Amino acid sequence: MEGALTTLWLTAASLLCGLVLGVLIALMRLSGNKPLAAVAGFYCWIFRGTPLLVQLLIIYTGLPLFGIRFSVTTAALLGLALNEAAYLSEIVRSGISAVGSGQREAGLALGLSRTQVFRTITWPQAFRIIIPPLGNSVNGLLKTTSVASVISMEELLRRTQILIQEKFLVLELFIAAACWYLVMTTAWELVQRQLEKRYGRAYAGHAADRR
What we know:
- The protein is mostly helical.
- 83% of the residues lie in helices and 0% in strands.
- The protein is built from 9 helices and no strands.
- It has helices at residues 2-30, 34-49, 52-62, 72-98, 101-109, 114-144, 156-167, 170-199, 201-210.
- Mean pLDDT is 89; it is low at 203-211.
């Protein structure tokens, strides 16, 4: 249970940091500024093209060679957030791109600033679009936190390995860990369904009106 709780908060913190950074990267790629778009594209290329395991090892064991040291918790959170941001940025970018440019132009024509247009017109519609893939990313991230065990982050898998060394119950404890993962992912699926139902209600209502 201690390991499961660590997995939960590590997932939540990584998701929050990754989403904030992912939105920023997506906006950079959509900005029309070539240098900013190039930097954002290079970031995604690096973090999507290399394994998370390698990234964690570089952060935790490679950076100290240059005098940059992180605790196990900080390194795990940093690695997971940076990796997740690269994937979330593509989800956010596709959601924003799906909103018609005519709506943004109409908002500007009404005298709204670009920030107001994004906050009141673009983002609410994009958010509904990105909820399903975002929910799937949360499910995947929850299981991906197990990779942090390689740098001794005591999440669910690492706590299981420690207990195996103490009690010599290999199969039993791995099955117990699998059950914990199933409980957490199933609980999130229930939450995701409610989110999709709630935020998809507006579109469903408009579709019914048109019929």
